Amino acid sequence: MATSDDSRTPSHAGDGGIPPHRKADAPAPLAGWRERYPEKFATHDEIFAHIHRGDRIFVGTGCGEPQHLVSELTRYVDTHPLAFFDTEIFHVWSLGVAPYTDAKFKRNFRHNSFFIGASTREAVNQGHADYTPISLSQVADLILRGSVPIDVALIQTSLPDSHGYLSLGISVDIVKAATERASLVIAQLNREMPRVLGDTFLHLSEIDYLVPHDEPLLEYAGAVPDEIADRIGRYAARIIRDGDTIQVGYGNIPNAILSHLTEKKHLGVHTELISDGLIDLLRKGVIDNSRKSVDRGKAVATFCMGSRDTYRYLHDNPGFMFRTTTYTNSPLRIALQDNMTAINTCLAIDLTGQATAESIGTSFYSGIGGHADFMRGAALAKNGKTILTLQSTAAKGEVSRIVPALEAGSGVTLTRTDVRYVVTEYGIAYVHGKNIRNRAMDLVAIAHPKFRPWLIEEAKRLKLIYADQAFLPGKEGEYPEHLEVRRTSKRGVHLLLRPVKISDEPLLQEFFRSVSDASMHRRFMSIRTEMPHERLQELCVVDYNEHMVLLATISGQEGEPDSETVVGIGQLRVEEDEHVAEVGLVVRDDFQDKGVGRELLDRLTQLAKQQGLLGFTARVLVENRRMLHLFGSSGFEIDRHITGDTVDLHITFGSNAG
Predict the structure, then answer these.
(1) Residues marked as catalytic
(2) Which CATH number fits domain 483-652: 3.40.630.30, 1.10.10.10, 3.30.565.10, 3.90.226.10?
(3) How would CATH label the architecture of 18-213?
(4) pLDDT at residue 525, as a whole number
(5) N or C end of the chain, less CB within 10 A?
(6) What are phi and psi of 213, to 5 degrees?
């Protein structure tokens, strides 16, 4: 399963069975099946008496966990302490109380989890239970090959239909494989379990014992996104395009991302987890699966964690296809889906791009789940993207999740080559294909501001960045995102006008390489045309209150921040004595006469007026007629003083300027 912040605990659904409008699909009465298969109905004690010393017991996953069977099994052991011992319980993820991890059952049960949840985390870290690190796509194969033998499977299903078929409902994942390999299959028949279509069906003849017991399914109540999660969601949503097929995990950050997708169109779903947030987008028509290249028209998943209302929505719904994890989580299968976008969270990432989603140092926290499956599969897909999200801090803001190096003992869930987009509440970093120095600066730029000075110093100490890398701490150096605006020039160029970031040095370097020597001379009035690191960082590291560097950028296409290209730069440097600002502009040669300079100057004028400045000063070469015309046609009151080959402009803002 995709990892997350595990910020919520499950609750139980309300009473009631198949919704009234689905009564036509109601299951056949059990009486007939009792007559046909009397040997499959027995008391709990008779059933559990078939479990032997050393057996390996599989328990159904997540919200599909057969709670009644688990509680009855532990009750049986409690009353028959010598019935069996040294049994091993395999569980992908428990949302229940996991009573078998209680110390009093240590001689009877040993828990082995493929993913760690809140109810088993302490037991694993205290050494009272085991954790098997593995990608979810590979677990079923271990079971089917016998590498992980299964003797007993405790599962939960819907009631049988008129043909004797049961549905595994909201939990197919590796449950199907477990039932195929187990010598003893015990099914809790629960009318609360929806009949979900896909690889979910078992026939009564395949079940050894049937235990009818109705009880509310476990629910996983989606956390309401807080302000930080909402900001992360807003950034991540920028990367997702109309027609993308998405995979998203659980928790408040994924919920926030989904809440910001309501204006998208024709999204598809190929995921391991169906959540309430995805159902909401399906109901709104945002997700219609119409542009999927594989399984078009179907939302594909392997399990569901949500509300009772979501479970009802899944019941007999032909728009869904639940498949086993060998299908949904196969990186090769995921890679076949064009425009696949995988969205997952992590616990920490270091400045080189290594990320952990499973442990905090030597303490195990969650697991690999489907994290690597989807992040690697999506990266291989045509036009595929991967988005790794995380809150910038932990421990109530006292610990940075972006770190110089992962803590010793942390599991590297994603290697440096796996990571593409990284999103925090402070922005988006695209690190794929970048050298260590550039990716370190990109990640520092989206870290929490109070940790950025520490990260810069640590990066210097580790020789990840330039030894003389400048940095301006405090509010003066915090990126003013609110100043970002989008404009379309009179010649139809779509621009993002934004302040420069500390991580923009590579973009500026590429910009100046593309500017002709003549343009460089007209802007900087020097025969020097090189822009080394020392000069570039003077442009990138600025006190935004005194020195504004504004970039005009274009993107290759919407939803691809990594394709950003700088086509123009404008500068303001405040001259406190006169309460004016020195202004300068340079536009890439192939974007001159397209209105880029005009948009930059208009925006710089707005910003200067907002600061209460009275005007500009500028020094322009006499031969730079384009720039002189730009200033002259902007509604300014201008005094000109020509000295040799330069013109000094003293500009006072007119009422119509800017």
Answers:
(1) 272
(2) 3.40.630.30
(3) 3-Layer(aba) Sandwich (3.40)
(4) 61
(5) C
(6) -160, 115
